[in-house]
Amino acid sequence: MGGYFKILASERLKMSRSFIVLLLLLSPAISVLVGLMSNIEGADQPWLVLLGVMGMIHALLFLPILSGIFAAFICRYEHHGGGWKQLLVLPVTRTGVYFAKYTVVMVMLAIIQLLFLGAMLLVGAIKGIDAPVDWEIIGRCLAGGWVACLPLAALQLAVSLMWSSFAAPLALNVVFTIPNMLVVNSAQFGPYYPWAQPFIATVPGQAMEGGGFGAMNLPLENLMVTVLGSFVVFLIFGWTYFKMKEV
Amino acid sequence: MRELVIETKDLNKKYRGRYAVRNLNLEIGRGEIYGFLGPNGAGKTTTIRMLLGLIRPTMGSIHIFGKDLRKEKLNILRKVGSLVEYPSNYGHLTAVQNLEAVRRILDVPKSRIDEVLSIVSLTKDAKRPVKGYSLGMKQRLGIATALLGNPELLILDEPTNGLDPEGIHEIRELIRSMPQQHGITVLVSSHLLSEVEQMAGTVGIIREGELVFQDTISNLQQQASGGFRLVVSEPAEALQLIRGQGYAGRLEDGGLRLDQLSDPEVALLVKRLVDHNHAIYRVEEKRRTLEDIFMQVIEQGGLS
Protein backbone atom coordinates (compact mmCIF):
# COMPACT_ATOMS: atom_id res chain seq x y z
CA MET A 1 0.00 0.00 0.00
CA GLY A 2 2.23 2.75 -1.28
CA GLY A 3 5.14 1.77 0.92
CA TYR A 4 3.11 2.04 4.16
CA PHE A 5 5.40 -0.15 6.24
CA LYS A 6 8.54 1.46 4.86
CA ILE A 7 7.15 4.87 5.71
CA LEU A 8 6.35 3.64 9.22
CA ALA A 9 9.95 2.49 9.65
CA SER A 10 11.10 5.90 8.46
CA GLU A 11 8.70 7.70 10.79
CA ARG A 12 9.98 5.75 13.75
CA LEU A 13 13.47 7.02 13.06
CA LYS A 14 12.29 10.61 12.69
CA MET A 15 10.48 10.44 16.03
CA SER A 16 13.56 9.27 17.84
CA ARG A 17 15.76 11.64 19.75
CA SER A 18 13.02 14.11 20.37
CA PHE A 19 11.28 15.34 23.46
CA ILE A 20 8.13 13.55 22.36
CA VAL A 21 9.25 10.36 24.10
CA LEU A 22 9.19 12.22 27.41
CA LEU A 23 5.60 13.23 26.78
CA LEU A 24 4.66 9.57 26.81
CA LEU A 25 5.63 9.41 30.47
CA LEU A 26 4.00 12.65 31.57
CA SER A 27 0.42 11.57 32.00
CA PRO A 28 1.14 8.17 33.63
CA ALA A 29 3.60 9.87 36.02
CA ILE A 30 1.07 12.50 37.09
CA SER A 31 -1.60 9.84 37.37
CA VAL A 32 0.62 7.92 39.79
CA LEU A 33 0.87 10.98 42.01
CA VAL A 34 -2.88 11.54 41.88
CA GLY A 35 -3.46 7.87 42.63
CA LEU A 36 -1.10 7.88 45.60
CA MET A 37 -2.81 10.89 47.09
CA SER A 38 -6.26 9.41 46.74
CA ASN A 39 -8.17 7.70 49.47
CA ILE A 40 -9.62 4.45 48.28
CA GLU A 41 -9.87 2.59 51.53
CA GLY A 42 -13.07 0.77 52.18
CA ALA A 43 -14.23 0.93 48.58
CA ASP A 44 -16.27 -1.99 47.25
CA GLN A 45 -14.42 -2.05 43.97
CA PRO A 46 -11.06 -0.44 44.72
CA TRP A 47 -9.70 -0.88 41.18
CA LEU A 48 -12.69 0.83 39.67
CA VAL A 49 -12.44 3.73 42.10
CA LEU A 50 -8.74 3.98 41.34
CA LEU A 51 -9.60 4.12 37.66
CA GLY A 52 -12.05 6.93 38.37
CA VAL A 53 -9.52 8.91 40.37
CA MET A 54 -6.48 8.42 38.15
CA GLY A 55 -8.40 8.47 34.91
CA MET A 56 -9.94 11.85 35.66
CA ILE A 57 -7.05 14.09 34.60
CA HIS A 58 -5.63 11.50 32.25
CA ALA A 59 -8.74 11.13 30.12
CA LEU A 60 -10.26 14.55 30.63
CA LEU A 61 -7.11 16.51 29.89
CA PHE A 62 -4.09 14.53 28.77
CA LEU A 63 -5.59 12.17 26.23
CA PRO A 64 -7.21 14.91 24.13
CA ILE A 65 -4.27 17.28 24.45
CA LEU A 66 -1.70 14.61 23.67
CA SER A 67 -3.73 13.48 20.64
CA GLY A 68 -3.30 17.00 19.33
CA ILE A 69 0.36 17.24 20.27
CA PHE A 70 1.27 13.96 18.59
CA ALA A 71 -0.65 14.88 15.45
CA ALA A 72 0.98 18.29 15.29
CA PHE A 73 4.39 16.90 16.09
CA ILE A 74 4.33 14.29 13.36
CA CYS A 75 3.65 17.05 10.84
CA ARG A 76 5.99 19.56 12.40
CA TYR A 77 9.26 18.22 11.08
CA GLU A 78 7.74 17.95 7.62
CA HIS A 79 6.39 21.51 7.60
CA HIS A 80 9.55 22.82 9.14
CA GLY A 81 12.42 21.86 6.86
CA GLY A 82 10.55 21.28 3.62
CA GLY A 83 10.14 17.65 4.60
CA TRP A 84 6.88 17.18 2.70
CA LYS A 85 8.69 17.79 -0.55
CA GLN A 86 11.47 15.41 0.33
CA LEU A 87 9.03 12.76 1.46
CA LEU A 88 6.53 13.04 -1.39
CA VAL A 89 9.09 12.89 -4.20
CA LEU A 90 10.03 9.45 -2.94
CA PRO A 91 8.20 6.46 -4.40
CA VAL A 92 5.35 6.63 -1.89
CA THR A 93 1.66 7.32 -2.28
CA ARG A 94 0.02 10.09 -0.34
CA THR A 95 -2.40 7.53 1.03
CA GLY A 96 0.52 5.53 2.37
CA VAL A 97 2.05 8.60 4.00
CA TYR A 98 -1.25 9.74 5.50
CA PHE A 99 -2.10 6.40 7.06
CA ALA A 100 1.45 5.87 8.31
CA LYS A 101 1.33 9.25 10.06
CA TYR A 102 -2.05 8.46 11.56
CA THR A 103 -0.82 5.06 12.70
CA VAL A 104 2.11 6.63 14.53
CA VAL A 105 -0.24 8.95 16.44
CA MET A 106 -2.49 6.08 17.46
CA VAL A 107 0.45 3.86 18.44
CA MET A 108 1.76 6.62 20.69
CA LEU A 109 -1.65 6.89 22.33
CA ALA A 110 -1.79 3.12 22.74
CA ILE A 111 1.60 3.18 24.47
CA ILE A 112 0.27 5.84 26.83
CA GLN A 113 -2.73 3.71 27.65
CA LEU A 114 -0.45 0.77 28.46
CA LEU A 115 1.77 2.97 30.61
CA PHE A 116 -1.34 4.25 32.34
CA LEU A 117 -2.38 0.68 33.06
CA GLY A 118 1.09 0.08 34.47
CA ALA A 119 0.70 3.21 36.61
CA MET A 120 -2.60 1.89 37.98
CA LEU A 121 -1.10 -1.47 38.84
CA LEU A 122 1.82 0.30 40.52
CA VAL A 123 -0.43 2.49 42.65
CA GLY A 124 -2.57 -0.53 43.47
CA ALA A 125 0.49 -2.44 44.62
CA ILE A 126 1.75 0.47 46.72
CA LYS A 127 -1.67 0.99 48.26
CA GLY A 128 -1.88 -2.72 48.94
CA ILE A 129 -5.16 -3.37 47.15
CA ASP A 130 -5.72 -7.07 47.64
CA ALA A 131 -8.86 -7.41 45.55
CA PRO A 132 -8.19 -9.10 42.20
CA VAL A 133 -7.78 -6.75 39.27
CA ASP A 134 -11.02 -6.43 37.35
CA TRP A 135 -9.40 -6.90 33.95
CA GLU A 136 -12.64 -6.90 32.07
CA ILE A 137 -13.82 -3.46 33.12
CA ILE A 138 -10.40 -1.87 33.24
CA GLY A 139 -9.39 -3.38 29.92
CA ARG A 140 -12.61 -2.24 28.32
CA CYS A 141 -12.29 1.26 29.73
CA LEU A 142 -8.69 1.77 28.64
CA ALA A 143 -9.27 0.26 25.22
CA GLY A 144 -12.47 2.30 24.94
CA GLY A 145 -10.55 5.46 25.87
CA TRP A 146 -8.08 4.73 23.10
CA VAL A 147 -10.81 4.07 20.54
CA ALA A 148 -12.47 7.31 21.58
CA CYS A 149 -9.27 9.13 20.62
CA LEU A 150 -9.54 7.89 17.02
CA PRO A 151 -11.79 10.68 15.71
CA LEU A 152 -10.05 13.41 17.65
CA ALA A 153 -6.63 12.28 16.44
CA ALA A 154 -7.92 12.15 12.85
CA LEU A 155 -9.37 15.63 13.19
CA GLN A 156 -6.18 17.01 14.72
CA LEU A 157 -4.08 15.33 12.04
CA ALA A 158 -6.18 16.95 9.33
CA VAL A 159 -5.81 20.37 10.94
CA SER A 160 -2.08 19.85 11.45
CA LEU A 161 -1.66 18.89 7.80
CA MET A 162 -3.46 22.04 6.73
CA TRP A 163 -1.67 24.51 8.95
CA SER A 164 2.07 24.70 8.64
CA SER A 165 2.27 26.25 12.09
CA PHE A 166 2.97 23.95 15.01
CA ALA A 167 1.32 26.12 17.62
CA ALA A 168 -1.97 26.86 15.87
CA PRO A 169 -3.41 23.31 15.87
CA LEU A 170 -2.27 22.91 19.47
CA ALA A 171 -3.92 26.15 20.54
CA LEU A 172 -7.11 25.09 18.81
CA ASN A 173 -6.94 21.76 20.57
CA VAL A 174 -6.44 23.27 24.01
CA VAL A 175 -9.24 25.77 23.46
CA PHE A 176 -11.62 22.92 22.74
CA THR A 177 -10.27 20.69 25.51
CA ILE A 178 -10.78 23.14 28.35
CA PRO A 179 -14.62 23.16 28.17
CA ASN A 180 -14.47 19.37 28.59
CA MET A 181 -15.33 19.66 32.27
CA LEU A 182 -18.60 21.31 31.38
CA VAL A 183 -19.35 19.28 28.28
CA VAL A 184 -19.09 15.90 30.01
CA ASN A 185 -21.88 17.04 32.34
CA SER A 186 -24.23 17.03 29.43
CA ALA A 187 -25.63 13.67 28.47
CA GLN A 188 -26.95 15.36 25.36
CA PHE A 189 -23.83 17.00 23.90
CA GLY A 190 -21.01 15.14 25.63
CA PRO A 191 -21.01 12.06 23.41
CA TYR A 192 -20.82 14.19 20.26
CA TYR A 193 -17.91 16.31 21.44
CA PRO A 194 -14.66 14.73 20.16
CA TRP A 195 -12.58 16.20 22.98
CA ALA A 196 -14.87 14.72 25.64
CA GLN A 197 -15.20 11.28 24.11
CA PRO A 198 -11.97 9.85 25.63
CA PHE A 199 -13.12 10.73 29.11
CA ILE A 200 -16.64 9.42 28.65
CA ALA A 201 -15.27 6.14 27.36
CA THR A 202 -12.56 5.78 29.99
CA VAL A 203 -14.32 6.60 33.22
CA PRO A 204 -17.60 4.77 33.75
CA GLY A 205 -20.20 6.27 36.06
CA GLN A 206 -19.90 3.43 38.50
CA ALA A 207 -16.27 4.42 39.13
CA MET A 208 -17.41 7.65 40.70
CA GLU A 209 -18.83 8.24 44.10
CA GLY A 210 -22.56 8.67 43.72
CA GLY A 211 -22.59 6.98 40.32
CA GLY A 212 -21.10 9.69 38.12
CA PHE A 213 -22.88 12.35 36.17
CA GLY A 214 -23.98 13.57 32.79
CA ALA A 215 -22.72 11.62 29.84
CA MET A 216 -20.84 9.11 31.97
CA ASN A 217 -23.67 6.68 32.39
CA LEU A 218 -24.61 6.33 28.77
CA PRO A 219 -24.13 2.86 27.37
CA LEU A 220 -20.69 2.42 25.83
CA GLU A 221 -22.20 1.00 22.64
CA ASN A 222 -24.05 4.24 21.87
CA LEU A 223 -20.90 6.25 22.40
CA MET A 224 -18.95 3.92 20.12
CA VAL A 225 -21.39 4.40 17.27
CA THR A 226 -20.84 8.16 17.46
CA VAL A 227 -17.09 7.73 17.87
CA LEU A 228 -16.64 5.40 14.93
CA GLY A 229 -18.99 7.43 12.75
CA SER A 230 -17.12 10.67 13.33
CA PHE A 231 -13.82 8.80 13.03
CA VAL A 232 -14.67 7.72 9.50
CA VAL A 233 -15.78 11.24 8.56
CA PHE A 234 -12.66 12.96 9.93
CA LEU A 235 -10.30 10.33 8.55
CA ILE A 236 -11.73 10.58 5.04
CA PHE A 237 -11.72 14.36 5.28
CA GLY A 238 -8.03 14.49 6.22
CA TRP A 239 -7.10 11.84 3.69
CA THR A 240 -8.88 13.58 0.79
CA TYR A 241 -7.38 16.89 1.78
CA PHE A 242 -3.88 15.44 1.86
CA LYS A 243 -4.30 13.74 -1.49
CA MET A 244 -5.22 17.04 -3.12
CA LYS A 245 -2.71 19.16 -1.21
CA GLU A 246 -0.26 21.16 -3.30
CA VAL A 247 3.21 20.72 -1.93
CA MET B 1 16.67 10.26 -32.75
CA ARG B 2 17.72 11.00 -29.20
CA GLU B 3 15.93 9.30 -26.36
CA LEU B 4 13.92 11.75 -24.29
CA VAL B 5 14.02 11.40 -20.53
CA ILE B 6 11.64 14.27 -19.88
CA GLU B 7 9.01 15.35 -22.33
CA THR B 8 6.18 17.71 -21.49
CA LYS B 9 3.39 18.56 -23.89
CA ASP B 10 1.52 21.84 -23.56
CA LEU B 11 2.01 21.90 -19.85
CA ASN B 12 -0.07 24.53 -18.06
CA LYS B 13 -0.48 25.54 -14.47
CA LYS B 14 -2.98 28.19 -13.60
CA TYR B 15 -3.30 29.90 -10.23
CA ARG B 16 -6.36 32.07 -9.70
CA GLY B 17 -6.76 32.83 -13.39
CA ARG B 18 -3.09 33.60 -13.92
CA TYR B 19 -0.81 31.20 -15.76
CA ALA B 20 2.30 30.33 -13.77
CA VAL B 21 3.35 27.98 -16.56
CA ARG B 22 1.94 28.15 -20.05
CA ASN B 23 2.16 25.71 -22.97
CA LEU B 24 5.48 24.38 -21.88
CA ASN B 25 7.15 21.79 -24.12
CA LEU B 26 10.32 20.59 -22.48
CA GLU B 27 12.52 18.05 -24.22
CA ILE B 28 15.41 16.65 -22.29
CA GLY B 29 17.52 13.86 -23.76
CA ARG B 30 19.26 11.05 -21.95
CA GLY B 31 22.69 11.89 -20.54
CA GLU B 32 22.22 15.62 -21.01
CA ILE B 33 22.77 18.33 -18.49
CA TYR B 34 19.83 20.61 -19.14
CA GLY B 35 20.01 24.12 -17.78
CA PHE B 36 16.57 25.46 -16.97
CA LEU B 37 16.92 29.21 -16.92
CA GLY B 38 14.70 32.08 -16.09
CA PRO B 39 14.36 35.00 -13.72
CA ASN B 40 12.86 34.46 -10.30
CA GLY B 41 9.14 33.87 -10.52
CA ALA B 42 9.23 32.78 -14.17
CA GLY B 43 7.78 29.37 -13.34
CA LYS B 44 10.86 27.20 -12.91
CA THR B 45 9.97 25.82 -9.51
CA THR B 46 6.33 25.40 -10.50
CA THR B 47 7.44 23.34 -13.49
CA ILE B 48 9.76 21.24 -11.36
CA ARG B 49 7.04 20.62 -8.78
CA MET B 50 4.80 19.39 -11.59
CA LEU B 51 7.55 17.12 -12.92
CA LEU B 52 7.85 15.56 -9.49
CA GLY B 53 4.13 15.13 -8.95
CA LEU B 54 4.03 17.56 -6.03
CA ILE B 55 1.36 19.62 -7.80
CA ARG B 56 -1.00 18.71 -10.59
CA PRO B 57 -0.84 20.41 -13.98
CA THR B 58 -3.96 22.34 -14.94
CA MET B 59 -3.53 20.99 -18.46
CA GLY B 60 -1.01 19.05 -20.51
CA SER B 61 0.99 15.90 -20.05
CA ILE B 62 4.32 14.89 -18.59
CA HIS B 63 6.27 11.86 -19.73
CA ILE B 64 9.40 10.81 -17.87
CA PHE B 65 11.41 7.83 -19.15
CA GLY B 66 8.67 7.57 -21.75
CA LYS B 67 6.03 6.85 -19.07
CA ASP B 68 3.01 8.95 -18.23
CA LEU B 69 3.56 10.61 -14.85
CA ARG B 70 -0.12 10.39 -13.99
CA LYS B 71 -0.25 6.64 -14.47
CA GLU B 72 3.16 5.44 -13.37
CA LYS B 73 4.16 7.98 -10.77
CA LEU B 74 5.77 5.57 -8.32
CA ASN B 75 7.79 3.74 -10.99
CA ILE B 76 9.06 7.07 -12.26
CA LEU B 77 9.83 8.57 -8.86
CA ARG B 78 11.83 5.48 -7.93
CA LYS B 79 14.38 6.49 -10.57
CA VAL B 80 14.38 10.24 -9.92
CA GLY B 81 16.42 12.11 -7.35
CA SER B 82 15.54 15.70 -6.61
CA LEU B 83 16.24 18.82 -4.64
CA VAL B 84 13.42 21.35 -4.73
CA GLU B 85 14.01 25.00 -3.77
CA TYR B 86 15.84 24.93 -0.47
CA PRO B 87 17.25 21.69 0.91
CA SER B 88 14.90 19.61 3.03
CA ASN B 89 16.09 17.88 6.13
CA TYR B 90 15.19 16.93 9.65
CA GLY B 91 17.26 19.26 11.82
CA HIS B 92 17.18 17.17 14.97
CA LEU B 93 18.75 14.21 13.16
CA THR B 94 22.30 13.73 11.93
CA ALA B 95 23.16 13.46 8.24
CA VAL B 96 23.34 9.70 8.52
CA GLN B 97 19.92 9.53 10.21
CA ASN B 98 18.44 11.87 7.63
CA LEU B 99 19.67 9.62 4.88
CA GLU B 100 18.55 6.53 6.79
CA ALA B 101 15.01 7.93 7.05
CA VAL B 102 14.94 8.18 3.26
CA ARG B 103 16.79 4.90 2.74
CA ARG B 104 14.12 2.98 4.62
CA ILE B 105 11.64 4.09 2.00
CA LEU B 106 13.89 3.61 -1.01
CA ASP B 107 15.08 0.23 0.14
CA VAL B 108 18.69 0.51 -1.01
CA PRO B 109 21.57 -1.15 0.85
CA LYS B 110 22.89 0.62 3.93
CA SER B 111 26.33 0.98 2.35
CA ARG B 112 24.81 3.46 -0.10
CA ILE B 113 24.63 6.04 2.72
CA ASP B 114 28.40 6.11 3.09
CA GLU B 115 28.80 6.22 -0.67
CA VAL B 116 26.64 9.31 -1.17
CA LEU B 117 28.16 11.02 1.85
CA SER B 118 31.60 10.60 0.32
CA ILE B 119 30.38 11.79 -3.10
CA VAL B 120 29.35 15.12 -1.54
CA SER B 121 32.29 15.06 0.92
CA LEU B 122 30.23 15.12 4.08
CA THR B 123 31.68 11.98 5.66
CA LYS B 124 33.52 13.99 8.30
CA ASP B 125 30.39 15.77 9.56
CA ALA B 126 27.99 12.90 9.08
CA LYS B 127 27.39 12.28 12.79
CA ARG B 128 26.42 15.84 13.72
CA PRO B 129 22.83 17.09 13.96
CA VAL B 130 21.97 18.81 10.71
CA LYS B 131 20.63 21.95 12.41
CA GLY B 132 24.25 22.99 13.01
CA TYR B 133 25.15 22.73 9.34
CA SER B 134 26.01 25.66 7.08
CA LEU B 135 23.77 26.28 4.09
CA GLY B 136 26.38 24.74 1.79
CA MET B 137 26.49 21.57 3.86
CA LYS B 138 22.71 21.33 3.92
CA GLN B 139 22.71 21.80 0.17
CA ARG B 140 25.22 18.99 -0.21
CA LEU B 141 23.21 16.77 2.09
CA GLY B 142 20.21 17.51 -0.13
CA ILE B 143 22.17 16.35 -3.16
CA ALA B 144 23.34 13.27 -1.28
CA THR B 145 19.69 12.50 -0.49
CA ALA B 146 18.82 12.96 -4.15
CA LEU B 147 21.56 10.53 -5.14
CA LEU B 148 20.68 7.92 -2.53
CA GLY B 149 18.37 5.83 -4.69
CA ASN B 150 20.79 5.54 -7.65
CA PRO B 151 18.59 7.78 -9.81
CA GLU B 152 18.72 7.90 -13.58
CA LEU B 153 17.44 11.45 -13.53
CA LEU B 154 18.45 14.21 -11.16
CA ILE B 155 16.28 17.30 -10.83
CA LEU B 156 18.00 20.11 -8.97
CA ASP B 157 16.21 23.38 -8.36
CA GLU B 158 18.67 26.23 -7.85
CA PRO B 159 21.25 23.96 -6.22
CA THR B 160 23.82 26.72 -5.83
CA ASN B 161 21.47 29.30 -4.37
CA GLY B 162 23.01 31.00 -1.37
CA LEU B 163 26.36 29.26 -1.62
CA ASP B 164 29.75 30.91 -1.49
CA PRO B 165 31.99 30.75 -4.60
CA GLU B 166 33.81 27.69 -3.34
CA GLY B 167 30.56 25.89 -2.65
CA ILE B 168 29.24 26.86 -6.06
CA HIS B 169 32.35 25.47 -7.68
CA GLU B 170 32.09 22.20 -5.76
CA ILE B 171 28.44 21.67 -6.64
CA ARG B 172 29.09 22.56 -10.27
CA GLU B 173 31.89 20.01 -10.54
CA LEU B 174 29.67 17.47 -8.86
CA ILE B 175 26.85 18.06 -11.34
CA ARG B 176 29.24 18.00 -14.28
CA SER B 177 30.52 14.59 -13.25
CA MET B 178 27.04 13.04 -13.09
CA PRO B 179 26.48 12.11 -16.75
CA GLN B 180 30.00 10.80 -17.28
CA GLN B 181 30.56 8.92 -14.05
CA HIS B 182 27.08 7.76 -13.24
CA GLY B 183 25.17 8.03 -16.50
CA ILE B 184 22.67 10.35 -14.90
CA THR B 185 20.60 12.90 -16.81
CA VAL B 186 20.46 16.21 -14.97
CA LEU B 187 17.92 19.01 -15.02
CA VAL B 188 19.32 21.98 -13.17
CA SER B 189 17.48 25.25 -12.78
CA SER B 190 19.03 28.61 -12.16
CA HIS B 191 18.38 32.30 -12.65
CA LEU B 192 21.99 32.86 -13.62
CA LEU B 193 23.18 32.01 -17.11
CA SER B 194 26.83 32.15 -16.08
CA GLU B 195 26.02 29.38 -13.61
CA VAL B 196 24.48 27.11 -16.15
CA GLU B 197 26.65 27.70 -19.22
CA GLN B 198 29.58 26.13 -17.43
CA MET B 199 27.87 22.82 -16.97
CA ALA B 200 24.86 22.51 -19.23
CA GLY B 201 24.86 21.26 -22.81
CA THR B 202 21.31 22.34 -23.48
CA VAL B 203 19.34 25.24 -22.10
CA GLY B 204 15.70 26.05 -21.84
CA ILE B 205 14.83 29.63 -21.03
CA ILE B 206 11.50 30.33 -19.40
CA ARG B 207 9.94 33.75 -19.13
CA GLU B 208 6.60 34.54 -17.53
CA GLY B 209 5.69 30.88 -17.64
CA GLU B 210 6.52 30.37 -21.32
CA LEU B 211 9.50 28.61 -22.82
CA VAL B 212 11.13 31.20 -25.08
CA PHE B 213 14.27 29.32 -26.04
CA GLN B 214 15.32 25.69 -26.04
CA ASP B 215 18.48 24.60 -27.77
CA THR B 216 22.09 23.67 -27.18
CA ILE B 217 24.48 26.14 -25.61
CA SER B 218 26.62 26.09 -28.76
CA ASN B 219 23.66 27.11 -30.90
CA LEU B 220 22.99 29.89 -28.46
CA GLN B 221 26.61 30.94 -28.76
CA GLN B 222 26.42 30.98 -32.56
CA GLN B 223 23.66 33.48 -32.33
CA ALA B 224 25.90 35.55 -30.15
CA SER B 225 27.64 37.25 -33.07
CA GLY B 226 26.44 40.80 -33.23
CA GLY B 227 28.15 42.34 -36.33
CA PHE B 228 31.41 44.15 -36.94
CA ARG B 229 33.15 47.29 -35.95
CA LEU B 230 35.48 49.03 -38.37
CA VAL B 231 37.83 51.79 -37.37
CA VAL B 232 39.02 53.73 -40.40
CA SER B 233 40.72 57.03 -41.14
CA GLU B 234 37.65 58.80 -42.59
CA PRO B 235 34.61 57.19 -41.11
CA ALA B 236 31.99 59.42 -42.69
CA GLU B 237 33.20 58.87 -46.23
CA ALA B 238 33.76 55.18 -45.61
CA LEU B 239 30.17 54.88 -44.46
CA GLN B 240 28.95 56.41 -47.71
CA LEU B 241 31.01 53.92 -49.65
CA ILE B 242 29.71 50.99 -47.62
CA ARG B 243 26.12 52.11 -48.03
CA GLY B 244 26.80 52.43 -51.72
CA GLN B 245 27.69 48.74 -51.73
CA GLY B 246 24.30 47.93 -50.26
CA TYR B 247 25.29 47.23 -46.67
CA ALA B 248 23.67 48.79 -43.64
CA GLY B 249 25.87 50.55 -41.17
CA ARG B 250 26.13 53.50 -38.82
CA LEU B 251 28.67 55.68 -37.10
CA GLU B 252 29.43 54.69 -33.57
CA ASP B 253 32.17 55.87 -31.18
CA GLY B 254 34.34 57.17 -33.98
CA GLY B 255 34.08 53.86 -35.83
CA LEU B 256 31.63 52.12 -38.11
CA ARG B 257 29.16 49.60 -36.89
CA LEU B 258 28.04 46.96 -39.40
CA ASP B 259 25.58 44.13 -39.17
CA GLN B 260 26.67 40.54 -39.29
CA LEU B 261 28.49 39.62 -42.52
CA SER B 262 29.90 36.45 -44.02
CA ASP B 263 33.67 36.09 -44.34
CA PRO B 264 33.78 36.79 -48.14
CA GLU B 265 31.61 39.87 -47.64
CA VAL B 266 34.03 41.19 -45.02
CA ALA B 267 36.98 40.56 -47.32
CA LEU B 268 35.30 42.31 -50.23
CA LEU B 269 34.33 45.27 -48.13
CA VAL B 270 37.83 45.74 -46.78
CA LYS B 271 39.24 45.51 -50.28
CA ARG B 272 36.86 48.22 -51.51
CA LEU B 273 37.83 50.49 -48.66
CA VAL B 274 41.52 49.99 -49.29
CA ASP B 275 40.99 50.62 -53.00
CA HIS B 276 39.48 53.97 -52.06
CA ASN B 277 42.49 54.84 -49.98
CA HIS B 278 40.93 54.44 -46.59
CA ALA B 279 43.35 53.47 -43.90
CA ILE B 280 41.89 50.62 -41.91
CA TYR B 281 42.96 50.47 -38.28
CA ARG B 282 40.74 47.73 -36.93
CA VAL B 283 38.20 45.12 -38.03
CA GLU B 284 36.50 43.67 -34.97
CA GLU B 285 33.73 41.18 -34.58
CA LYS B 286 31.34 42.41 -31.95
CA ARG B 287 30.40 39.34 -29.94
CA ARG B 288 27.50 39.64 -27.65
CA THR B 289 28.03 37.71 -24.51
CA LEU B 290 25.62 34.93 -23.68
CA GLU B 291 24.52 37.14 -20.85
CA ASP B 292 23.45 39.80 -23.39
CA ILE B 293 21.48 37.24 -25.33
CA PHE B 294 19.96 35.88 -22.19
CA MET B 295 18.89 39.38 -21.17
CA GLN B 296 17.46 39.95 -24.62
CA VAL B 297 15.52 36.72 -24.48
CA ILE B 298 14.28 37.51 -21.01
CA GLU B 299 13.27 41.05 -21.87
CA GLN B 300 11.80 40.55 -25.31
CA GLY B 301 10.65 36.98 -25.09
CA GLY B 302 12.81 35.64 -27.90
CA LEU B 303 15.83 36.17 -30.11
CA SER B 304 15.43 38.86 -32.71
Automatic annotation (TrEMBL), chain A:
UniProt keyword annotations, A-Z: Membrane, Transmembrane, Transmembrane helix
Superkingdom, taxonomy of origin: Bacteria
One Pfam family of this chain: ABC2_membrane_4
Annotated CDD domains: ABC-2_lan_permease-like (cd21809)
Listed transmembrane segments: 47-75, 96-125, 137-159, 166-184, 223-242
UniProt-recorded name of the protein: ABC transporter permease
Organism: Paenibacillus cookii
TrEMBL record, chain B:
Gene Ontology MF terms in the entry: ATP binding
InterPro entries: AAA+_ATPase, ABC_transporter-like_ATP-bd, ABC_transporter-like_CS, P-loop_NTPase
Keywords: ATP-binding, Nucleotide-binding, Transport
Residue ranges of domain ABC transporter in the record: 6-233
SUPFAM superfamilies registered for this protein in UniProt: P-loop containing nucleoside triphosphate hydrolases
Domain of life: Bacteria
Entry's family note: Belongs to the ABC transporter superfamily.
This protein's name: ABC transporter ATP-binding protein
Lineage, broadest ranks: Bacteria, Bacillati, Bacillota, Bacilli, Bacillales
